[in-house]
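Q: Hi! First time doing this. I have a protein sequence and I read that you can turn it into a structure. Is that right? Here it is:
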Amino acid sequence: MSTSRHLKVLTACAAVLAVTATTTAAAATAPDRLARFYDQHVDWHTCALGPDDDPGQALDAAGADCADITVPLDYTDPGGRTVTVAISRLKATDTDHRVGPLLLNDGGPAGPSLHMPLTKSQVMGEVAGRYDLIGMDPRFVGRSTPLDCGWDLGSAFLRSAGADPAAYREEVAVARELAGRCERAHGDVLPYVTTRDTARDMDVIRAALGADTLSYLGYSYGSYLGEVYSQLFPGRTDRMVLDGVNSPEYYNQTLLRGAEAANEGALRAWASWAAARHATYGLGATRGRVLATVEHILGAAAKEPLRIGKAYLLDEHVLPSVFIGGLGSDLDERRADLAETVSLLARAADREPVEPSGRLAGQLDFLLTGTGSAASSQMTAIICGDVAERRGVDSYWRAVEESRERFPLAGPLAGNITPCEFWDRPVEAPTVLDNDVPALLVNATDDPRTLYAGAEAMHERWPSSRLLTVKGARQHGLYGEYGNACVDERVNAYLRTGRLPAHDPTCGA
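A: Yes, that's right. Below is the predicted 3D structure, encoded as C-alpha cells:
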C-alpha cells in the first residue's frame, strides 16, 4: 500500500466511531455535517436511458420514475468526493392506507435492484398500492456511479481450486492478479465499497424521500444489508422482510463456506430427479449413474478443458460453478435447465463437438469473458471491503483437501482462495448485531445458498422476529419466486397490516 493510501485508511479508521455515532442520531434529526445530503431535493425523471433500454422502458410504462441520490464517497469526509445512487419509485396508489417507502434489494452482493418495483408489485397485488416501492442500485452497481476493475473473467468468487497443488497455484496467481487490477484501477474508492456505506446511503434515501422510517424487503445478501441498516440506524425501520436469511456468522470472504453439505445434498436430489427422466436427458437411470456422469465431466475437464462451440473452453476451475449455479432451486424448470446443460457437457467430455444453448452461452460469456467484469468486480469489492482477512495462501488448500472427500464438487469451490486474500484490510470491522428487530424472516430448510441454520441464528438473535419456514424445499428465494401461495399470502398479510404472526409459521414445499 502506498504511504498516502496508508495514511488515508488510518484517518478513515480513526473517524469510524465518529461517523457511526453521527449516523445513528435521533431519527428526526439530520446530522449537521451530512445535512446537505439528508435534505437534498430529489429530481425525479423518466427511467429509460434510450430506445434500447428495455428495463427503463418497462419502468416508464408502469408509471415509475427514477432519480440519482447524491451521497458522500466517505462518510467521515462529507465535504469531499461524492457519488450517486440510482433509485426508482412506483408510487403508492392507495393513499388512504399508505404506509410509506418500501426499499427493495435483490441480493448479490452487487445485485442491481432498480427493476424490483415491477417484479414485486406483481406478487404484492393490492398491497403494493400502500407503498412507494423503491428500487435501488447500491453504490457502484448498475446505474449508480460505476466500478469495473477491467477483468477478463467474471467469476472471482465462483472458481474452484482444482484437482492438485499445481492447479491451485494457478488460482493463487489469478486471485493476486485480480486484486492487483482492482487496486490499480480503483484503489482510491475501494475502502468505501462496503455494506456499511450502502446502509448509510439507505438512510440518506429515507430522509430525501421525506420519511421517518423505512420498510424493507431484502433477498439473500440483501438480508445482511437490512441487518446492518437496522443496527446502524435503530428505530428507523418499519416493516421488514428478509428472504433467504444471511446471518453475519455465515457472511465470509469465501462466500459459500459452510454451505458445502447443502449444495452436495442439492446435487444428489437433482440427480434423483434427472434419473427419473433418463429417457429425456440420457444422464443415467439411477441417481448413482447420474452422479457418475457428473464425475466423468469434472474429470475430463481436469485433464483438458471442455470445448463448447468455437468460443468457449471450460476448465476445472470454472466448470463446478456451472453445476452449483444450477442447484439454487428445486423447481422443475430450473432442474430441467441444468439437465439440458449437463447433457451437453457430457458430450463435450466425450470430445464431441457441441454448440451451447443461448442460456448457456450467456452464462459462459459472464464466467469466461470481460462481460462479467463489472458485476464480479463490484461483488468482490463489497465482500473484501466487508470481511477480508489474511489467512495465508496455504490455509485455503488445506481446507479444500480436508473437504474434498465429503464434498467433491462444493468443497474445492467453497474453500478456494479469493482476491480478498490480497486485498487491503477493511477500513471498518464487520457489523456486530446486538439489537432486536420485529422482522419477518423467510427461509427454506434446505436452501443451498443461505442456510436455514443462519435463519435460526437470526431468529434467536432477534427474539421479536418471526421465522416463516418452508419445509423440505431446496430453494433460494421464496416470496414471489417459488410460486408458493402460502409464503406469498403470509408475507403479504404482514406487509398489509404490519402485524407479525403470533407464532412462527410453516409452509410446505
